[in-house]
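Let's practice the habit of predicting before peeking. Look at the sequence and jot down your guess about where helices and strands might fall. Then scroll down.
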Amino acid sequence: MKIKKIISFSVWAILIAGILVLVGFMNAGHRKMTCKNIEVSVDFQGGEQLITESKIKKLIRQDTLMDKKLTDIDIIRIENRLNKIGVVSKAEVYTTITGNLNIRIRQCRPIVRIYNTSGQSYYIDRSGSLAPESPGYPANVLIATGYIKTKYSDTLNVLETQLTPVLTNLYKLSDYIFNDEFFSAQIQQIYVNQDREFELIPRVGRHVIVFGDTDKMEEKFENLMLFYHEGLNKTGWDKYRVINLKFENQVVCTKK
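Done guessing? Here is the structure:
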């Protein structure tokens, strides 16, 4: 038994020593390896393209990284720089033993585009964070206009502050519409009036939906869906000028 244990221990010792030697050779080779290629992949999370591979390579100054030793490339600095891009939800950077610098980007998923009173345009994404518009790559999402004063900030998340009640409620309303198959197709714009209440502009039907605040939001949408199904489908979608949902358990309409 002792001989078997000695043999077994010797085999494991040889295997471990071999692995350590192999790792040593690999590390030595990696220290000498230079950057041969930069590969960028972007996960758009099912949304539209807001950033391109060429733009990412330009931001990290690809020309300064090619043929540079992999060990001299500051991966953390590159990640931090990419994560500061407003439309980037998460960036991951790593090197390979074959000389590749790999960049994996997860793009944010906008749900509404804001046009504020200062003339700025920016997005709110699914996590509630603000994201800048991407010139040349507009997202086909819900539009919000009107009395929206909040300016863009790349550190602002509307769910983490009480300083932007309009945006917080606008996010809740937009998120509900985004996640509903019918209303995401029907509602194209949200207008914020002077009372900080919401009015919805539909794609089908020449009417304005006076929604009010976000209290009992689900109930209001249920009432609207019921009215669409049992009312407008019979009378016609252009009969009314205003559909008011502000009153509890009822839909009040104004004819043209």
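How did you do? The longest strand covers residues 88-95.
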